[in-house]
Design brief:
Layout lengths: L5 H10 L40 E6 L4 E8 L18 E4 L9 E6 L23 E6 L4 E13 L5 H5 L5 E13 L2 E12 L13
């Protein structure tokens, strides 16, 4: 099983609020116990043979028109998780201390909902995803890790479910994270978190192409 190091999980607990959706540095931590993780839908997910380790270079989510390059994110100087830069050509970012997509464990990809004066971010429609929607992570070695959404949750940043997002699982899973909820002074109150497991064969009935 692929696992986060103790240091990486401790850092995640400090930084998962992703307050950087509006360009500000992450802040605070959540001490609230997370609720139980939603059970995957048998129709949406299936057993999957783990892929070889290869970093993600692209992410495609047909149901919300996302087709983006993926950056590699590490830790900021203050020990928090980096977020993608605020630019006009917004891109998602993979947290390099999480497993690569297709390896056992929760692979974590972050993106902005807005990018300041540049307008909408790459994950602006993330909250619209529904159970069964497909997600494809293109890997550097030319393979593709395919997932299906199992649940979408909007949570207050102060109650971020650290263990649900970063805790060990025994199969390949994916977490997509952005900001959401009410906005005040350039900051969002909540996080939107998409949970996904290995995709079963076939096409999602919710995929409706580019917007």
């Amino acid at each position: 099983m692929s696992r986060f190091s103790g240091r990486a999980l401790a850092v995640a607990a400090l930084a998962v609020s992703l307050a950087g959706c509006g360009g500000s540095p992450p802040e605070g931590r959540a001490d609230t116990a997370p609720p139980a993780r939603s059970s995957p839908s048998p129709a949406a997910t299936a057993p999957a043979r783990p892929l070889e380790r290869s970093v993600p270079v692209g992410l495609r989510i047909p149901a919300i028109g996302v087709d983006t390059p993926v950056l590699r994110l590490g830790l900021a100087p203050d020990g928090t998780v980096e977020v993608p830069p605020v630019t006009a050509h917004d891109r998602a970012g993979w947290y390099e201390h999480s497993p690569t997509p297709g390896r056992p464990g929760p692979s974590v990809i972050l993106g902005h909902v807005t990018v300041g004066s540049h307008g909408d971010g790459v994950f602006r429609h993330l909250a619209e995803l529904r159970r069964g929607d497909r997600i494809e992570a293109r890997l550097e070695n030319g393979t593709t890790a395919r997932f299906a959404v199992t649940s979408v949750r909007t949570v207050a940043k102060a109650e971020f479910p650290t263990e649900d997002v970063y805790g060990d699982v025994d199969r390949p899973e994916l977490r997509l994270i952005t900001c959401g909820g009410p906005r005040s002074g350039g900051e969002y109150r909540d996080n939107v978190i998409v949970f996904a497991g290995p995709a079963a064969p076939g096409r999602s009935p919710h995929d409706h192409g580019e917007r």
